[in-house]
Specification:
Largest sheet: 4 strands, mixed
Shape: globular
Helix content: 40-55%
Strand content: 15-25%
Structural class: alpha+beta
Order of helices and strands: HEHEHEEEEHH
Number of strands: 6
Strand order of the largest sheet: 1-4-5-6
Number of helices: 5
Length: about 190
């Protein structure tokens, strides 16, 4: 539990250091700690579920209601009928911004495992980045570097997201303005007699 507290403190510091502590955002990091005698697979499952949930939140938040791309299934041939072509056409969602790589930290006793999850792919398994045995004191520098890399990568996505949103708001295209424009368009179409 001490490792979890220290990792959370480092993450919070990195958020404050980047001046994001007063910004509302969806987290890009999930940390899970094992209970005594809890199997590693159980902790990995909890962290995976948390990352999948964060991915759903990002996909919902950044989904563009104005644009959809249609891609033909590459297995379709030009000799297929138009009905067959329609069946093989798939909608690909378009997002307002690049979806993040989400980071997970699995802590079991003194072993820390870093995992990633690509939010573009719902349900995709997490990928292990590495295991670090924090009881091995001869590796302190490497442990610190591993933690710093994960925390900074997570923070950098949020910094980029904040910067893009600020630029869009300055240009009059912020997410809130888009929401208001959508409501105005809906109001124009509704008529009550």
């Amino acid at each position: 539990d001490a490792l979890r507290r220290e990792l959370l403190a480092y993450y919070k510091w990195s958020i404050t250091d980047a001046n994001l502590h007063r910004t509302e955002h969806i987290p890009v990091l999930a940390i899970g700690t094992s209970a005594p005698l809890e199997p590693v697979a159980s902790v990995v499952g909890r962290v995976t579920d948390s990352l999948h949930d964060l991915g759903r939140q990002y996909r919902a938040h950044l989904f563009s209601h104005h644009h959809h791309h249609h891609h033909l299934d590459p297995s379709s041939s030009s000799s297929s009928s138009s009905d067959d072509q329609k069946k093989k056409t798939q909608k690909t969602p378009v997002f307002k911004r690049q979806l993040p790589t989400l980071y997970g930290v699995v802590i079991t006793q003194m072993i820390v495992t870093f995992v990633t999850y690509d939010a573009r792919f719902p349900g995709k398994p997490v990928q292990s980045m590495g295991n670090y045995d924090f009881s091995n004191q001869g590796q302190d520098v490497w442990h610190a570097m591993a933690v710093a890399i994960v925390m900074v990568r997570a923070r950098d996505y949020l910094v980029g997201l904040k910067k893009e949103e600020e630029e869009e708001q300055q240009q009059g295209r912020g997410l809130l303005l888009l929401k208001e424009e959508e409501e105005e368009e809906e109001d124009e179409g509704d008529t009550d007699a």
